[in-house]
Design a protein that fits this description.
This protein is of the alpha/beta class. Helices cover about 25% and strands about 30% of the residues. The radius of gyration is 14 Å and the shape is globular.
Length: about 140
């Protein structure tokens, strides 16, 4: 992950990805889609709301939050599942210490109101019960 700052072009691309109504297909969720996908180390992450729940996606190689969201957003769009990216931040997943810290914010997907790292933490705790999960704004 590099030290890039989100520029106007990246913010516009993120805005275009932020919400999709599912194209009228009415699909609630894709069977077998994991609630949480994270890599190891520090990574950009997004919290996505769908009609049937929430998804957390992190990617240690993502330069921007839109890059962390891109794969699952494409899948949701292809399958006609409506979604909204609620916001983003960073996750530090340390597998050696069995810790996960969820923190920060995204310029591309700013939170509308208070940060909702609490929702992300609940999902991450369920996905990685052997890790200690903490949050910080």
């Amino acid at each position: 992950m590099s030290g890039f700052t989100t520029n106007e072009t990246d913010q516009l691309e993120a805005a275009a990805m932020r919400t999709d109504t599912g194209g009228g297909k009415g699909q609630k969720m894709i069977h077998g889609l994991a609630e949480v996908e994270l890599g190891s180390g520090v990574q950009k992450y997004v919290l996505i709301k769908t009609p049937s729940g929430y998804l957390v996606r992190g990617n240690p190689s993502a330069d921007y939050h839109k890059d962390a969201a891109r794969g699952v957003v494409g899948t949701l769009q292809d399958e006609g599942v409506s979604y909204t990216i609620l916001g983003g931040g960073r996750i530090h997943k340390n597998d050696d210490k069995k810790t996960i810290l969820i923190y920060g914010h995204s310029y591309g997907f700013p939170w509308d109101g208070p940060f909702r790292h609490d929702i992300s933490a609940t999902l991450v705790e369920k996905a990685f019960p052997e890790h200690s999960v903490t949050t910080s704004d």
